[in-house]
């Protein structure tokens, strides 16, 4: 049954990691390493069954292949899921055991923080392997990726505005922001500086108050955010919020936000948005600033270079809108097409023999 699942989307490798002493049970998945070592975070979750964990790691690793490829990174897609309770089961030994398994893959897979794992956990992994990002700044990392994710969302939003409104100025535009957490607060700062008006909703009143005080944002109720009069909707909290119920309420002409998996049903709802003339900026490209920033650590982190690459999201969006128009497909499909085409092209490039095979750990050899 596992090979059947792997055949479905041409997965390369699934590694089961077990360490009796520390209680580690983890699964590492490498989906595709055509572009380079597979990069993707380690997520800790109390999975009810092994099957659930396998399904999740396969899905997430494939998602990273597309995200890394569309972001223009020389990285493949992979992921780790750790089965357990993040509040009870973590220890130094637990993550060092995982680090040894990551190391055993010889650089084919690079891990990082994800849901329920922390910088401290990555530092433990770093004691056992160089193939980890998101470690402490004192070890040379770029620190919290949220501000760079926010910069990427802002750049993507400017290009999205150009698509929907003819120019990329966000001055005088009204942006409806769902969730003003780490990413969206910083995004709102950029928007406020440019002279945009902000409407915000959040389940956390403190987060709302901060946006109201700092940026003069207007607060609306949790369900009201879908139907406010605004130019652009920025979902920055939850997945699945673009669905059969919400789309008919939308008055915006564009959507661009940081949340993962915004479309409840990717194909159906991206087509519905296109039919309603709502420009949709594909989430995994919009929010790729974080992974771009983290990946820069592999070259020896340089903030200026990381910022320059994150700003490149504007050009990636440009390509996506062009593909969508040329091929008559939704922007969500166009993002997938961009990623797939890049992987296919690089596969062909790499079919030519070269003694100077480059990768992040073997430059110039
Ligand atoms: N942090 C990053 O670098 C990064 C990178 C890629 C993607 N993302 C995605 O972007 C989104 C935001 O990430 P973050 O790091 O800012 O997280 P965060 O937890 O700091 O912020 C999320 C905010 O959404 C609010 N929220 C939760 N449920 C809500 C609801 N029903 N309605 C309105 N608000 C609600 C929370 O109270 C919180 O303030 C997430 O979906 C995350 O997966 C983040």
Structural write-up:
The protein is α/β, with parallel strands linked by helices and 365 residues long. It folds into two domains: 2-63 and 76-137, Leucine Dehydrogenase, chain A, domain 1 (Rossmann fold, 3-Layer(aba) Sandwich), CATH 3.40.50; 146-342, NAD(P)-binding Rossmann-like Domain (Rossmann fold, 3-Layer(aba) Sandwich), CATH 3.40.50. The protein has 13 helices and twelve strands. The strands form two sheets. Strands 1, 2, 3, 4, 5 and 6 form a six-stranded mixed beta sheet that branches. A six-stranded parallel beta sheet has the order 9-8-7-10-11-12, sandwiched between helices. The chain starts with a helix and ends in a 16-residue tail after the last helix. The site of nicotinamide-adenine-dinucleotide has 24 residues, from helix 5 and helix 6.
Please provide a brief summary of the model.
The chain is an alpha/beta fold and 365 residues long. It contains 13 helices and 12 strands. The chain folds into 2 domains: 2-63 and 76-137, 3-Layer(aba) Sandwich (Rossmann fold), CATH 3.40.50; 146-342, Rossmann fold (3-Layer(aba) Sandwich).
Based on the model shown, name its key terms:
single chain, 365 residues, alpha/beta, Rossmann fold, 2 domains, six-stranded mixed β-sheet, six-stranded parallel β-sheet, 13 helices, binds nicotinamide-adenine-dinucleotide, Glu/Phe/Leu/Val/Trp_DH_bac/arc
């Amino acid at each position: 049954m596992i090979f059947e699942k792997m055949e479905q989307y041409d997965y390369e490798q699934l590694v089961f990691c077990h360490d009796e002493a520390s209680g580690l049970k983890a699964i590492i998945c490498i989906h595709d390493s055509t572009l380079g070592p597979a990069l993707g975070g380690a997520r800790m979750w109390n999975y009810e069954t092994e099957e659930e964990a396998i399904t999740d790691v396969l899905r997430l690793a494939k998602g990273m292949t597309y995200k890394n490829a569309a972001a223009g990174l020389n990285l493949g897609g992979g992921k780790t899921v750790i089965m357990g309770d993040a509040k009870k089961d973590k220890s130094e030994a637990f993550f060092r055991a995982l680090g040894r398994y990551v190391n055993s893959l010889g650089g084919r897979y690079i891990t990082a923080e994800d849901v329920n794992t922390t910088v401290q956990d990555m530092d433990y992994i770093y004691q056992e392997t160089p193939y980890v990002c998101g470690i402490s700044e004192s070890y040379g990392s770029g620190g919290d990726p949220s501000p760079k994710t926010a910069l990427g969302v802002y750049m993507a939003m400017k290009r999205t505005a150009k698509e929907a409104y003819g120019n990329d100025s966000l001055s005088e535009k009204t942006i409806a922001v769902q969730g003003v957490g780490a990413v969206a607060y910083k995004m709102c700062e950029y928007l406020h500086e440019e002279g945009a008006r902000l409407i915000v909703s959040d389940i956390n009143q403190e987060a709302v108050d901060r946006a109201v005080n700092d940026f003069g944002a207007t607060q609306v109720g949790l369900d009201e955010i879908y139907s406010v009069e605004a130019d652009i909707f920025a979902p920055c909290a939850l997945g699945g919020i673009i669905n059969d119920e919400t789309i008919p309420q939308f008055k915006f002409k564009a959507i661009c936000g940081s949340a993962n998996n915004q479309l409840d049903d990717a194909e159906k709802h991206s087509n519905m948005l296109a039919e309603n003339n709502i420009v949709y900026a594909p989430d995994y490209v919009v929010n790729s600033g974080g992974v771009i920033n983290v990946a820069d650590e592999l070259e020896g982190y340089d903030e200026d270079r990381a910022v320059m690459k994150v700003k490149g999201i504007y050009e990636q969006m440009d390509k996506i809108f062009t593909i969508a128009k040329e091929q008559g497909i939704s922007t969500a499909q166009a993002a997938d097409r961009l990623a797939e085409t890049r992987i296919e092209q690089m596969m062909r490039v790499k079919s030519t023999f070269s003694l100077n095979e480059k990768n992040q750990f073997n430059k110039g050899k």
